[in-house]
Amino acid sequence: MTYEPLHHKYRPQRFADLVGQGAIATTLTQALLKERIAPAYLFCGPRGTGKTSSARILAKSLNCLKSPKPTPDPCGQCEVCQQVANGTSLDVIEIDAASHTGVDNIRELIEKAQFAPVQCRYKVYVIDECHMLSVSAFNALLKTLEEPPPHVVFVLATTDPQRVLPTIISRCQRFDFRRIPLGEMVAHLQHIADKEQIDIEPAALTLVAQLSQGGLRDAESLLDQLSLYPERITVEHVWQLAGAVPEEDLRQLLGAIARRDAVAVLEHTRQLLERGRDPLTILQNLASLYRDLLLAKTVPERQDLVALTAETWQALIALAKTWSVEEILQAQQHLRTCESQIKQSNQPRLWLEISLLGLMTETAPQSTVANVTAITSPKLTIVSRESQAVTAPNPLKASEVKQVQTKDTKDTVAPASEPKPSPEPQVSNTEAIWEQALRVLQQMQMSTYALLSQHGHLRQISDREVHIGIVNQTLLNLTKNNQAKIEAAFSQVLGRRIKVAFEIAPLPHKTKPAPKTKEPPQSAVVVPFRPREEPPPPPPLTTTPDPVRESAEKLARFFNGVVIRLPDEGESPDTAITEGSEEDELDF
């Protein structure tokens, strides 16, 4: 005898058999009784909630041969009902939109819809996953949905109604299928277990319903797998077969995070991974537990809001006392960000460990990879290759500088040095270097980029070395494994070979720069103020022609030269070299 899966064997055959969809069953039943059949229906909802089954029930109800008119209770025994159930009816056509997305497929469907049904009263087209149709295919279907032939009924099913064109939705009667409630699902699974003689504990059956997350087909498939165990099915069997993280393991992991025990967190993570748990599943299950932790913090008397055992619920109430609501919300935000990062990462285990260790930092993670900003620290120092000197407000003459340097060091606060042509680097330049290096690193290795952007900051820059602060020793060790890539990123940004040094330092808070004061620095040289000698005013311009000047200019143009004038006694050398001035003299 051919084996039949449980989700096929126990597929609902009437609207009264639908589990957890009472409102939809009642509405469609009344429509059939009053013969108010719409030309098009849109069934929306998560997978495994009864959309396709309802479409088949509707097709049988419209065409059952035992009734002279549409009926909400098809017999299930006539030829039409059997053909619809087996998918062999010529007048009930099921189309998978995922493999028939083009406009040509829809045009062919529209052409065939014009013909009368072969055996049934209505020709029913069931388009599953209709959101996969292209825009042109939807547009081709618009006119037919608005004014279909009188013998045609369209049923569109989708798990993503947001991707269906609004013009399509407006032409259909929309029914939203909800997730199956836990109590109704457990009762349905118990009914199947009794009929199939499956020996399973009530707690294990409840866990099966919880893991399915409202999808009845998933629950029936998991129960079908569990029925192959030769002994009585327990909660441990369900955890092992489902691949989810047991409550006890999640509780221990959360306790290690609360104690800030990095070794315990890594050890629990290693054990879960060795037992075949997927990194993304671990993170998602932990995020769900944080949601339950938030409820334990805010409404500890409402255990009915969570799908946990009484023991785990009491443990969460005790753990919730160690956290504030803000810290729990920040942790949930952190896990939500990390979930998308793990999906995109080629090293999910590494990023999982980083994410879990990030929950233990003293300051809750506040930055995300989608919005990376360099953090400014008041302790950030810039080390130049040579010390920068602070110059006096007015420039000094060479003789004055020489005189100051010959004085005893007791008479000055700090020795003066020759001013450098390049100004001292600013913190804003350092922030730009940090951001550019992170962008380069993002192209090289996503996991290292995410680690540095959330748990690292730039502390010091020298000519050939960069100092980076990491929040704790564990993350520092992980970062050192990719030191070569980090050095390559900084070398590419700065245009020279750079060495990177790491040190443990907490994340600084971003603060606004303090207002500048006009007080001179303490290291400035104390020099008495001397007024600058102004050069004598230039002689008045003469309007009379000067034959010597004209001859000199002609001679300079002939030899491609310039006219220069030697400075007079007491005149500043800066005004001596001119070209074509009124008092030029030849230098033979």
Automatic annotation (TrEMBL):
Its EC number is 2.7.7.7. Residues 37-181 form the AAA+ ATPase domain. It catalyses: DNA(n) + a 2'-deoxyribonucleoside 5'-triphosphate = DNA(n+1) + diphosphate. It is an enzyme of class 2 (transferase). Keywords: ATP-binding, Coiled coil, DNA replication, DNA-directed DNA polymerase, Metal-binding, Nucleotide-binding, Nucleotidyltransferase, Transferase, Zinc. GO terms for cellular component: DNA polymerase III complex. One of its GO terms (biological process) is DNA-templated DNA replication. NCBIfam families: dnaX_nterm (TIGR02397), holA (TIGR01128), PRK05563.1 (NF004046), PRK14948.1 (NF011510). This is DNA polymerase III subunit gamma/tau. It comes from Thermosynechococcus sichuanensis E542. The lineage of its organism: Bacteria, Bacillati, Cyanobacteriota, Cyanophyceae, Acaryochloridales.
